[in-house]
Amino acid sequence: MKREIPLMIVFVTGIFMAVQFFVPHSTSEFVYEFVMDWTIIIGIFALALGIWSFVRVATNKIKRKTANWQFSIVALIGLFGMIIFGSGFLGGLESYMFRHFFNFVIIPLHATMFSLLAFFIASAAFRAFRAHSALATVLLLSALILMLRFNPYLGPVGEYIGDAASWILNVPNLAAKRAIIIGIGLGMVATALKVILGIERTYMGSD
Amino acid sequence: MNWDTFLWTTLGVGLTLSTFSFLYRDNPFYRFSESLYVGVSAGYFSMILWYNGLVPTLIDRLWVGQPWWQIWGGKWWYVIPGILGLMMWFRFSKKKSWISRYPIAFYLGIATGAAIPLEMQNRVNRQMYDTIRSVFETINSGQSVFSGINDLIIFVGVLCGLFYFFFSLAHKGPIGGVAKVGIYFLMVGFGASFGYTVMGRISLFIQRVQYVRDWFDMGFGGSGGAAAIVWIIILLMVLLVLLEIIRQVTKKPTQQTT
Amino acid sequence: MDFFSKLIGLDRRWVFLVLGAVVVIVLLLEFPTPIRINPEVKSVYDFVEGLEPGSYVHLALDYDPGTLAEMHPMTYAIMEQLLARKIKIIMTSLSPNGPGMAEEAMLNIMDSARILHGREVVYGQDIVFLGYKPYPGIVILSMGQNYRISFPNDYYNTPVDSIPMMQGVINFDNVEGVILITGTSGVDFWIAYANGRYNVRLAVGLTGVMAADYYPYLKSGQIFGLMGGMLGAAEYEKLVNKLGPASEAMRVQVWTHVAIIVFILIGNISYFVSRRKGGLGK
Fold first, then answer.
1. Does residue A41 form part of some domain?
2. Residue A95 to chain C, least CA–CA distance (Å)
3. C-beta of residue A75 within 8 angstroms of C-beta of residue A109
4. Whole-model pTM?
5. Contact C16 A119 (CB under 8 A)
6. Residues of chain C neighbouring A180 (CB-CB closer than 8 A)
7. CB–CB of A126 and C16 under 8 A?
């Protein structure tokens, strides 16, 4: 029953949702809304698991004094600090410290972490972007045209490059991405069917 | 000048520069800012989940002003998704993790069932329809094929691209030729994505430099005290650079650089 | 080791230094950079210009601080245009770290409307922020049925039924369209679920990393507008006649792109010369 009932639940709910799309009857709509409502609530509890997992990993690092365990203390202080700042006693989401920590700690850190990628892409372009074959050359030329498309210092050539870039985006790029989208769509439908029919069961974990 | 904003911005700039120090090499400043980021983000997300997630969808529905033990006073049936949600938390238990399968199955069934008709319709049908429709519109309109050349190129590109991804047939002979055309289209697409990606990544760095520049303007445009704080941070950075240069110059030749 | 082989093995930190220097130097200089408007961006602008005052638009700000640089200029430009035309805005933010930024943008725009244009934008009458819920696919499907399923309260925990501008607004049928500004894969859910199931008109503002992938949806009509990255934001700023951070950043983009192209050329020249000499770089 530990495996059969979940398989049955997946099957019944999956078939219901797939069929409901085609059934505009008010009863079907009512059940559909009910199910959406419940799913959101269940999903919220699932996300809380991630936070618990993070606390567990950090405390294990501190207990075992693994490399750089001191920084796990910093992480936990950050976590519990934000929880305290955001708690109802201090004003919730509108509290001074909560908002300022978001604006002046989270935003700068998050934005800066991602901005490091600018350097790595420049380094990758220098070290790895080689026209060593016809395919690589095509890729390189396409990238160069896109990169030059908004350069205003190329004179009349710039207009042609801009038009070429527009054509590349709206024709061959579109064709390539459309092929990928169709492939992904077919793959997603196949995987969804495998899950609903019980062929794919990795979500259940082990006994 | 607003001292409150300036001091908080100074903190933000300090954390920004600590993170950028990773570009030189891994160091404690970077590790500190990375750990702080992970912790504070998790804390922020927890509070958003609580106030925006759980409170309005569950807590406020179960308790509509009555004492906390009187669940039957509100919409008591919401206890069921609440219990299902709590069952998720058995995922980490070695002996009782099977309890979490029920809510996971419920959620997975809903998500996959909803996805089937919608993904089929939007990723497959609509895209294929548009590809074929454009070509036939040109043909049916009586115009020459060349006026619809772009639609024809798209048709050929999509077909060849799909052939490339069909690995059940060996890419030999005519199939191999079609797949090769497909991969050329894909390379153009990836080149276009790379060109766009460079702009995307650089944007993030530009915004960070604008942030630091605005902090400079705030500091030097404000009182002497603010300018002093900016100068102290500049001098601290210069000091760190000098210390690193000394470290590099005085280190033994056999030591490896990071 | 000859010069070109040394160049191939150059410490990447020199590349970082050059890139950083280019950005800082160009940012300190001030010169205009002409921006060419693309039809996919203009169609978003025309959509907003064509709306009647008092109509509703759903503004979905599904991005987090990692994509702030490209998304925030779009958000500000579009919100200012919507409020100037007296369009009522329903805002959501389905990204975990997004609600704080969405709220900040809303409050800043409301302040600037009052200070710069003397127009009082009232929360609850002109604009409402519903906040965040997890699992965008399910939330979008539920909003298409009834906003109150996933958002019984707004971001400030006020019951949606008590908010004046939400009276009579049930679902996507009551909005003229959705303008989605996002850096996440949630855009796929909006296209498939909001436009696919509920036929709501959808325009997207995406990061540069994602923009090239969504042209097929533009052609098929599943989205009617696409703003790609900082360039799209700069184009929109030009359309609304309010040059902001995106327009300023475009001049830096031009020169950093030139720098990266130079890196690519140097890398390729070094590679081919070294290969010809039979040295490193094969």
1. yes
2. 12
3. no
4. 0.90
5. yes
6. 213
7. no
